[in-house]
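2024-03-11 09:14:02 DEBUG pipeline.ingest accepted 1 chain
2024-03-11 09:14:02 DEBUG pipeline.ingest length=181
2024-03-11 09:14:03 DEBUG pipeline.predict start
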Amino acid sequence: MKLKIWLLAVLALLLLASLPAQSVAFKVQPQSLTVGQSGKIIATLSIPEDRQQIFDPEDQDFFFLSATHPGLDFGKTIYPKTYKETDAGEKKYFKSVSLELPFAVKKTADYGKSSLKVTMVFNLCYPSGPCDPPDEVDKTLVIEIAPAMSNGGEGLEGPISETMLAEDREDVVPVTNEVVE
């Protein structure tokens, strides 16, 4: 009896190990930005040979990309063109599909490196019709927000202080090599 249970357990593990697995790869471009700059998050879903990802533009609950970060304004998920579309307007993706999420750095963003939480939700289906339960993959990426360059990208970085603008102030006397009597 114990041998039967052990053999069934081994068989179940072998079956699970042989199932094709999907994977999601995330990246942010560029990784370092300044206030006002735009970027994008790209998530690529690898789809097993025996499945497909279906996207219905009228019901986006089962295939999307989202992110959270207090210093970024996010746009809408950008879906790629597909080679196969159903009569109902659904788009079918095979092998792999990359979604993009555009963003812009807010003027109020804190400078420095910070975490950017990204989530991809997908729902793989078999060509015969049935679908797996919806799945979700989370990833934390690192993004760096630097101060905008104050002089066209040359020299010092960061906000301009009052002392840096001394030549424009009336209460500051320029230093020269001339002797004043």
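2024-03-11 09:14:41 DEBUG pipeline.report The chain is about 10% helix and 40% strand.
2024-03-11 09:14:41 DEBUG pipeline.predict end
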